[in-house]
Amino acid sequence: MRIASIGAAGAERPAVLSEDGKRFRMVEAESWRSLLERGGIGAVTEIVRRSAGQAWSPGEGARFGPPIPNPSKIVAIGLNYRDHAEEQGKEPPAAPLLFAKAPSCLIGHEDPIAIPPQETRTDAEAELAVVIGRTARNVPVEEARAVVLGYTIMNDLSGREAQYGDKQWFRGKSYDTFGPCGPWIVTTDELPDPHGLAIRALWNGVTMQESNTSRLIHDVDSLIAYISRQMTLAPGDIIATGTPAGVGVFRKPPVFLKPGDRVRIEIEGIGALENPVTG
Fold this sequence. Notes:
This protein is an alpha+beta fold. The protein has five helices and 18 strands. The N and C termini lie far apart (36 Å).
């Protein structure tokens, strides 16, 4: 199934989508996160089942916010595609490189990306995102999929000026609007295996990144197991699994986003996330 959060920013409500994402029906819950916290993945499945008899509403004009607008945390992974490591001339890391993005950076499909005035080198990164469905601590690799609600798309925008100036990633990855996410979550019943999915990023219709999630250095199961040994993963938490080669900063010459651009991230089996860029 496909689930989303629809409505004005800060007032999104959970909804179930038709297979093509063009129709929706609202469900009786405050948010997907609150539902997960109360009853886990089973509670989501049950409320979707109860809403099955309701009429569909057309999706035209509806705002798709971040599917989980207020996760407790966003755990992101650096240098996690083999082609991305190769373009930097770096060895693949033996263990996942974890960093955080502030949840306040999240925006939805078609929401504008606002480049801060102090940031001169804004980059986009196509990423598969994992949404956690229940509390997870010390999860064995072979049980990792059982804690996953589903998968969505994230654009891990990066302010390279801040990233390289600070010599760490948090500020440059957490500017307001630097976390486009969505438009929806495809749950594991529809997408049981997140590996082997085509992924690409287009800037103004030009392909910048094109790869496959089979090229992840640390796959989804390994990431969940590793992260859950370091910290407790809560329902609704997001894991951004890393980006493939082709980001702007490593091109020759480098390419960065500017006002008026549009960024589109596509992942096979999920769909497309698109956002305009403003100053």
